[in-house]
Automatic annotation (TrEMBL):
Superkingdom of origin: Bacteria
Organism: Mesorhizobium qingshengii
The keyword Nucleotide-binding belongs to this UniProt entry's keyword annotation: no
Domain called Response regulatory: residue spans: 4-120, 157-272
Protein name: diguanylate cyclase
Lineage: Bacteria, Pseudomonadati, Pseudomonadota, Alphaproteobacteria, Hyphomicrobiales
Domain GGDEF: 322-457
Length: 457
């Protein structure tokens, strides 16, 4: 695993010590001796993790961390604060400034490397999501990332898996009014509970009498539904090796007992904030893809989607020697509707037409807005005679009930012309199939409108 690590410390010997350790693990190392230089490096270069000393002159590590986390361009970079301070209040202050973790000097090599590798993996995931979000559409990525994803004012739903009643009661008391906390005393039941409920964090105790908690962590990481769910391990003093192994397996954070209430809430808040951040990126990517293939007015697929999928459906039908039919519909005299009732009225007609069209086709049929007032329906496993009957049913559905326009309840009569074609045995192509349907539609329009014409050849 390679990554670019920024080491920030005003003491050259400390910088050199960390640099040597990281270079030995084949990381690329950048250095800075003060806060402003560290911020500039993060803004101008690709930094994967920041190892930040707290005690620096002029601008201390807390302020550096706060500035990095408040800037959308650098807020996604994990920050590990390294300090000689060992008070809980200092850790909480760092976490509240946005730090992802806290290490105390002298830093244990194994803890340092496992923590850095864990955060590098997390950063890689976030970078991939950011890249997808910014390249699928020009969505204003900085504006998206600067939003507050309700991490402070929405109570997170959290699962605690712990078989010790006294421990459960203490944590329930600590998180009262801070989290919607569910409890599972049995680790097997807790696994299924985590898989079936959209928790924003799972806390797992290491103090099970006869169960390995890391197995539960591994199972949660291997399941698609829980792969990105934050896991916090609640460990006992002396369990450093188990914690390191847990970080290698993909846990996000850990707390040592006795647990401090402020540190627990701060670390939980950090994990929930990051999860919501990445969830928002995933949702943005999904929404972008949907927008790219969906007609915004009618909710049907658009022509781009049709162009990319019709060939696939055609090839499948030919390979399996199964029928496939296509219908092209066109609203009659739609320009007159727009001229009379305006584009708002025309849009209402298009939306209602799409609703009726969707109601009269199957789930496996591909209904798309082809452009303007033209719509295409691709019907797999459908013979031409059946497709013609479906087209006639749609034509009748449109003609028999008037369309409402405006808020005053006014209605107008709307009709539609339909052209139908089917895949021919022997040599045929998508272009020829669509051409026949288009010619059939032209015949329907020129033959008086409000009719269906099927083109056999």
């Amino acid at each position: 695993m390679t990554a670019r690590i920024l080491v920030v410390d005003d003491i050259p010997a400390n910088v050199r010590l960390l640099e040597v350790r990281l270079l030995a693990e084949y990381f690329e190392v950048l250095t800075a001796t003060n806060g402003p230089d560290a911020i500039e490096t993060c803004e101008n270069g690709k930094v994967d993790v920041v190892l930040l000393d707290v005690m620096m002159p002029d601008m201390d590590g807390f302020e550096v961390c706060r500035r990095l986390k408040s800037d959308p361009a650098t807020s996604h970079i994990p920050v590990v604060m390294i300090t000689a301070l060992d008070q809980v209040s200092d850790r909480v202050r760092g976490l509240e400034a946005g730090a992802d973790d806290f290490l105390t000097k002298p830093v244990n090599d194994l803890q340092l490397m496992t923590r850095v590798k864990s955060l590098v993996r997390l950063k890689s995931l976030t970078d991939e999501l950011r890249l997808r979000a910014s390249t699928t559409r020009n969505i204003g990525i900085e504006e998206l990332l600067s939003r507050n994803f309700a991490s402070e004012d929405t109570t997170p739903k959290v699962l605690l898996i712990d078989e010790r009643k006294s421990s459960v009661e203490r944590i329930q008391k600590m998180l009262r009014d801070r989290a919607d906390l569910d409890i599972a005393s049995d680790p097997h039941a807790g696994f299924f509970q985590a898989a079936e409920t959209p928790y924003e964090c799972v806390m797992i105790s290491t103090a099970f009498a006869d169960f390995d908690p890391l197995r539960l962590c591994s199972q949660l990481r291997s399941l698609d539904r829980t792969r990105f769910m934050p896991i916090i391990l609640l460990a006992e003093e002396g369990e450093e090796e188990r914690i390191i192994r847990g970080l290698e397996l993909g846990i996000n954070d850990y707390l040592m007992r006795p647990i401090d209430q402020q540190e627990l809430t701060a670390r939980l808040r950090t994990q929930v904030r990051r999860k919501r951040y990445n969830d928002q990126l995933r949702a943005s990517v999904t929404q972008t893809i949907e927008m790219a293939v969906t007609d915004g007015l009618t909710g049907l697929h658009n022509r781009r989607y049709l162009d990319s999928h019709l060939q696939t459906l055609f090839d499948r039908a030919v390979a399996r020697r199964r029928p496939l039919s296509v219908m092209i519909t066109d609203l009659d005299r739609f320009k007159a509707i727009n001229d009379t009732y305006g584009h708002d009225g025309g849009d209402e007609v298009l939306r209602e037409f799409a609703r009726r069209l969707r109601k009269n086709v199957r789930g496996i049929d591909l209904a798309c807005r082809f452009g303007g007032e033209e719509f295409v329906v691709v019907m797999p496993d459908t013979e031409g005679v059946v497709a013609e009957k479906v087209a006639e049913r749609i034509r009748a559905e449109i003609a028999q009930a008037p369309f409402a326009i405006g808020s005053d309840g006014k209605t107008i009569e709307v009709t539609v012309s339909v052209g139908v074609s089917s895949v021919l045995k022997g040599v045929d192509t998508v272009a020829a199939l669509m051409k026949r349907a288009d010619l059939a539609l032209y015949e329907a329009k020129s033959g008086g409108r409000n009719r269906v014409v099927a083109k056999a050849a």
